[in-house]
Amino acid sequence: MPLIAHTHPSDHPIRQEPWLETLSDRVLEYELNGEDLARLQRFEEDHHYRKKSMFDYGYLLKNCQETGAAWIAMIEDDVLARDGWYSRAQQALHDLASKHGNDRWLYLRMFYTEGLLGWNSEEWLRYFGWSFACFLALLSILLGARIKYARLQRNLTNVNIAMLCLVSLPSCIVLYFMAGRATMQPLAAGVHEMNRFGCCSQGFIFPRAIVPELIERTKKAMEEDYYIDMLLERWADAEHLNRFVLVPSLLQHVGGKSSKGWGYDKSATTTWNFGFEDHPP
Q: Which pTM was predicted?
């Protein structure tokens, strides 16, 4: 059900395309009273992108909810989908339902960018701890070997041990971090919790039970000037709602112009999922 998000539908570049009606069960346009329509027109004229997109999200969710669907997928229009994305999504939802059937969770993410899953500064203490553990482990092994094996005492001098522990090991650790987390610690295929560092809003699947409250929150968020991904993450953090992601990504972002307005186009071109490129489009 694509939404023609223009108050004058004929202004939309694909509205007159013959394939639109053929492929869609229903093409959704605004059916609003005069006051709401006038407000949307002001949003368009004044370039209030956040408020307009928040209204559109809630409006589309409401219409999808009325179909009676058990799951509601919200997909932006600047993405490509993997071959078999629908069946893969269904299997992931089945797995979630079997493992978390009684839990209240927010969404299954169909797109994420590895750029935010790198060596995040918020976890510096963890990285330092593991690095220090490697240092202690290597030092213990070398000292233990020198004590146990007499023939190694000649080579495992204090100077050599210091060089291995204070030069060679730190160099290896630096190379490990330089290679990047996506290379050294990639996410395994399957469904994972992603309660932190998930980005962006290209594709979500929501369980039906969560949608009524989400619609109400989009209405309130219009006055608070949020982006939809900010709204979702703040809500989930406040109420400890789990968020999940399917790996590898089902969608690839291909947009070069951001709907957030001027100044965001550069970040739009770098919002990318590398893992998607390893699979057929």
A: 0.83
